[in-house]
Amino acid sequence: MKEMTLDVTGMTCGHCKSSVEGALKELDGVSNVDVNLDTGKVDVKYDEAKVSADAMREAVEDQGYDVA
Ligand SMILES: [Cu+2]
Predict the structure, then answer these.
(1) Pairing mode, strands 66-67 and 2-9
(2) Among candidates 31, 35, 9, which has minimal Cα distance to 21?
(3) Distance in angstroms (rounded) separating the CA atoms of residues 60 and 20
């Protein structure tokens, strides 16, 4: 299990938070998502054998947010 932090911009409210959380949790291999709205930091625990950092980035971008 690996951990990484995504820097997400454009999240402003609880709805944004749940969109991002939901999109990441839907990915096979992602086991935990922790979104901090104030900082835009999204901590993700994931299985690197099942999901790549790029796939997670894309999932967030598909929701309309930017990942640094
Ligand atoms: Cu929002």
Answers:
(1) antiparallel
(2) 35
(3) 6
pLDDT digits (tens, 9 = 90+) for 10-21: 999 999 999 999
Distance of CA 49 from the midpoint of ligand 1 (Å): 31
- How far away, in angstroms, is 6 Cα from ligand 1 center? 17
pLDDT digits 0-9 by tens, 8-55: 999 999 999 999 999 999 999 999 999 999 999 999 999 999 999 999
Q: How far is the CA of 57 from the centre of ligand 1 (A)?
A: 18
Widest CA span in the chain:
32
